Amino acid sequence: MNPHHSHIARTRREFLTTSASGLGGIALGSMLSEDGVLNAATASQSEDFASLRPNHAPKAKACIFIFMAGAPSHIDLFDPKPKLNELHGQKLPKSILDKARFAFIKPDSAVLMGSPRTFTKHGNCGMEFSDLLPNLGSCADDLLMVRSMHSEEFNHHPGQLLMQCGVSRFGMPATGSWINYGLGSTSKNLPGYVVLTAGRGSSGGSSLWQSGFLPSNYSGVLFRNSGEPVLNLKNPNGLPSELQRAGLNALRDLNQRRYQEVHDPEIASRIANYELANRMQSAAPELVDLSGESQHTLDAYGVGRPEPKDANKRRGTLPGLQTYDTFAKNCLLARRLVERGVRFINIVHASWDQHSELNENHAYNAGAVDQPVAALIKDLKQRGMLDSTMVVWGAEFGRTPLGENRQGRNANTGRDHHPTAYTMLMAGGGLKGGQVHGKTDEIGWAIEDKPVHINDLHATLLHQFGLDHLKLTYRFQGRDFRLTDVGGNVMRDWIA
Amino acid sequence: MHFYTRLCIVLFISLGHGWATPVDFSRDIRPIFSEKCTLCHGPDDAKGGLRLTGLKSAQVTLESGKIAIVPGRADDSEIIARTHHADPDTVMPPPGKAEPLTEGEKALLTQWINQGADWPQHWAYTPLKRPEQPTLTDAPDLQNPIDAFVVAQLEHEDIQASPEADTITLIRRLYYDIVGLPPSIEQVNTYKEAMAANRDAGYARLVNDLLASSHFGERWGRHWLDIARFADSDGYEKDNSRPDAWKYRDWVINAINEDMPFDTFTIEQFAGDLLDPSSHNQQLATAFNRQTLTNTEGGTDQEQWRIAAVMDRVETVGAAWMGLTLTCARCHTHKFDAITHHEYYQLFAYFNNGDETTIPAADSDMKIRVLHERKKDRRQTHVLRRGEFKQPTDQVLPGTLASLPSVTHRSGSDGDRLDFARWLVNGKNPLPPRVLVNHLWAHLFGEGLVATLNDFGVRGERPSHPELLDWLAAELIDRGWSRKALIKTIVLSRTYRQSSNHRLDLADRDPKNRLLARQNRFRVEAEIVRDLSLSAADMLTAKLGGPSVFPAMPAGVSDVNYNSAFKWKVSPEGDKYRRGLYTYFKRTAPHPNLITFDCPDSNVTCIKRTRSNTPLAALITLNNDTFTEAARALAKRVSKDYKPLESAFRHCLSRKPLKDELKQLSTLLDTSIDYYTEHPEDAERLSPRAPERAPLTATVRVLLNLDEFLTRN
Description:
The structure holds two protein chains of two kinds.
Chain A: H1 3-17, H2 24-35, H3 37-45, H4 47-50, E1 62-69, H5 74-77, H6 82-86, H7 94-99, E2 119-122, E3 127-130, H8 134-137, E4 143-150, H9 156-165, H10 175-183, E5 193-199, E6 221-222, H11 241-262, H12 265-288, H13 295-301, H14 323-339, E7 344-350, H15 358-382, E8 389-394, E9 398-403, E10 415-418, E11 422-428, E12 435-437, E13 439-440, E14 447-449, E15 452-453, H16 454-464, E16 473-476, E17 479-482
Helix pairs in contact in A: 2-3, 3-12, 11-12, 14-15
Chain B: H1 2-14, H2 25-36, H3 55-58, H4 78-84, H5 103-114, H6 145-156, H7 167-179, H8 185-197, H9 199-212, H10 215-227, H11 245-257, H12 262-271, H13 280-285, H14 302-321, H15 341-351, E1 354-360, E2 367-373, E3 381-384, E4 392-396, H16 417-424, H17 431-445, H18 466-478, H19 483-492, H20 494-497, E5 522-523, H21 526-536, H22 573-576, H23 592-596, H24 615-623, H25 625-638, H26 644-653, H27 659-678, H28 680-686, H29 694-700, H30 707-710, E6 711-712
Antiparallel strand pairs in B: 1-2, 3-4, 5-6
Helix pairs in contact in B: 2-5, 6-18, 7-8, 7-9, 8-9, 9-19, 10-11, 12-16, 14-15, 17-18, 17-19, 21-25, 24-25, 25-26, 25-29, 27-29, 28-29
């Protein structure tokens, strides 16, 4: 996109979505006279957005980013380390120990901790997974496994911000906000960026799907797991939809009258947004109504699964939360959202932060996500949607090969934070499946080959959407900001 | 940069200057230097002896014996020779170091040198002088000098200002702007009569009455709390509660109600603890610095987060007082503005010995978090390589920016927060008064004279009315830094009193209304959206100050963060309906009604709120319980009136409905009556215990959603 176009597009978007009555006023002004206020303003919300041009031909149209907040252990799930098992109970070489930072581990007495899990090769490609993830294993030939992810953030909240927003500071837009800013929404009846959550909640909370300095209509919209999926979706108690409609008609006519008097295009935009709100009132409940899905599909995802018997002892959940069922539903909802034109879906699942009793708690968490994520990938593929839908599975960092030995905890049953090296999974969206990218050393501590920074992951993600991460910028406080901050390289090897 | 240049050109044409514009250094040349030259020839480095920081340094004899810039003679200027050179070993910038100059840039550079290489100081750093009031050829009844500046520019463009807005719009505009509440029907009548008797005197009386109202402090205090990134919780991770936070919020409200001069207001917040003597309230004021986020997550290196908090303080001062974006200079010398990497840490040094502590509250057992100066073991400050707390390099002493007037440290002080605060508001430093009047202006016009409120640097927009900005800044200082005096001066102007109707004749020429040929109209802020509805329904509890309150919140919202110890317990009746600014603000799970209407997340300073217009916002005023309660209460308020619909209309919009407006509402009321007659069970649901009011409730809720109601006109 040449800079002039990008400027016009941006001004237009600002105009249409915030109160800035910018240069776009001229364009909208003429639309208003041709089509009448309502039609033009309604169009501006969808078709006009969709016509924004990417930088190059896109492969992906939607992304489902499954965020495993708290950080799963790469060593127990994806990256088998027989040598670590051999060295179980021994100290870490001093050369590494001196350089490392730990949250809770006392470095003097810390020892390496092998994994009790067993690993098996899957698919034609022979990708290895631990026995905690048999279903994901069955998708191996569609998966890109990156074993060389790294981050510089050592704590959860900054690390989560980095993964979600490309920068560990507050106030930056999330990836989903950037993509919708760059390409617009293709959904007429739903927001372009939807967030689903399961489990006990992440430390980052809503800051993980903020729009930062972008207008708030680019924020992720959290769909709720109980009650109405979007806040304030239901009419006031005792107000039937026919009266809601009659009220909206009166409101539209009164606002339109006002528009003819003061000529402020913001009024047209307000009318359009009330109409979209009204469409969402029926579209969102329709979305979450799974009665049209076959029993086969529901079972494949694991919708309605009971919690395991020992769930009340597990840290990835809280009493009363049906995490297994919720996560399964979220995966199915993600597919339904993509079908309805939503560009970016975040499924946030927390928490994987196992400083002790990792084996039991990871088994619980893996049980929650393994079947639904695998079902999602297979379902997308079977429906011909996987090529245009990128699925990402990952977290803010990994976990240490050392066991954790802090006081008050069961020593050497958990692992500490480990941003130096960890694993993520991707599928679809024009990425090449059946490949493992990168390599860690024999104990899973450091990267030995092809390191990938989070900014690189984001650059590649944008690339698949037809966006150049260097060109998708927003001027704020005198600087052109981008998702990839000052880094980012497109990982050409990943692309099919 | 290209589109920045183009944008300027577009604006230029639209403002009627045409094409034949001479090259302007700030607009055309400085961006070239910043992006392509100063990495090697700037404040940090002078390769070959060239430092492009001013005309003087660009004219020295280089190591090569040549001179980079010879004003008036592009042919003799080495910079032209080298940027045009064909040999990749000679051409500047060297391939790989920066993008080569485009043909357009080369032409601009050549023309600029031939024009005389004028290299003016960036406007924002120039000393503050009170400009002469322009004389007008065709002076309408000017109220005050503001109008002279604005009209002079309009006359130059041959544009007529808009007529004054009608009386009711003016009364409402002042109520929305100054106290953030709608006027009651009685108040409208009182001032309407006063203005009918003597328009200017009646208007001025209203202004005085509103400025004296304690709601003024709530309205303008909230503006300040955006800057202070005020919240009731820690922010990171556990996001623990800060039960004392409201004490500082009340300090702000009181200070603004008392019209504490802005210089005192500045000094007490930065360094109230360093004043001698220092009162309890002055120490409390330093809680401004303690609004920074806290990370108590396990394994955090506390020094890392202490440094992050100090950086946040530095950057907040930069944005809020100086209109400068300092963040870049954490890691490297600012690419565009005259802020070096060293200078950033000189500023940092003023704050580096301010430690967080608590003092007892004056009236309870509560502990209040404030700042106090470390006396022993004072920290030395080092430049941090790439902003990394573990990579200290050169030691630096407290000091300010070379591009601004110098600072004086008290005898015996090697530079602390008090010295720094006094330097900010000594009247010689031109940035704080310019920035402050621009903030005040933006709250009264929806946009600043400098549109980039937080960026007065070279990449920010230039003032639409530079002389007016300086006149206001000079006036502020002459009036003893009184915000009330300045607000009064602005709202008394004809410029402020203009109609806000969009002008079709100017849609092409001045689409952003930079010339101020009309007022602006804009949707009110998040807190005010709710305040307006509660007021129209006569539900608002008007109590001033006190602990933060918990209005109704949809179930589950406050649980997104994993600190499950926190529960949102809805306040009892009275506190449930306090003004929006008293709503408890939990950083990781703020009230959705606030956030959806662009209330800032309070994690970093917010100088300018966005004003989005979204379906989620529409859903709130359509369906949220609070607004349904308001509709119910409004229906109750008017149900016994002679003409309930007209009455409700007047409570919301202060005017009588027009005939066709009334018809729309009557039709809706009839439809509602029909429905609820057939569905008494729904009537009971919408309007419990008073089902007879269900049709009216279903009708008046439309008023609470009207653009005219939610917009400051």
